[in-house]
């Protein structure tokens, strides 16, 4: 699980599901990060990601 970045350009970060190369049944799942103001659309540092992942896991 990692972050889905709707405004990502030139990368695969805007794809919700991506097959992992060299595997048959493994995928990367990307989820939107939401704040009280809506969807977080831009890239953020991995150190700022943890609160979003904690919220998603709840």
Describe the overall structure:
The structure is a single chain. With 58 residues, this protein is α+β, with helices and mostly antiparallel strands. The protein is built from one helix and five strands; from the N terminus they run βββββα. The chain has one domain. Strands 1-3-2 form a three-stranded mixed sheet, with no helix packed on it. The protein has a two-stranded antiparallel ribbon with strand order 4-5. The chain starts with a strand and ends with a helix. The model has no long low-confidence stretch (mean pLDDT 84). Keywords: Glycosyltransferase, Transferase. It is an enzyme of class 2 (transferase). This is sucrose synthase.
Mean pLDDT: 84
Distance between the termini: 14 Å
Based on the structure, what is the oligomeric state of the protein chains? Answer: single chain
Strand content: 25-35%
Number of helices: 1
Helix content range: 10-25%
Strand order of the largest sheet: 1-3-2
- Structural class, from secondary structure content? alpha+beta
Report the count of strand segments: 5
The best one-word shape is globular
- Please describe the biggest sheet, giving its number of strands, its sense, and whether it closes into a barrel: 3 strands, mixed
SSE string, helix = H, strand = E? Answer: EEEEEH
Gyration radius over CA: 12 Å
- Uncertain segments: none
Provide the domain count. 1
Keywords: Glycosyltransferase, Transferase
EC number: 2.4.1.13
InterPro entries: Sucrose_synth_GT-B1, Sucrose_synthase_pln/cyn
Enzyme class: transferase
């Amino acid at each position: 699980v990692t972050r889905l970045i709707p405004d990502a350009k030139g990368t695969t970060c805007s794809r919700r599901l991506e097959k992992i190369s060299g595997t048959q049944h493994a995928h990367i799942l990307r989820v939107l990060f939401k704040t009280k103001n809506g969807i977080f659309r831009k890239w953020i540092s991995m150190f700022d990601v943890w609160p979003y992942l904690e919220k998603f896991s709840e």
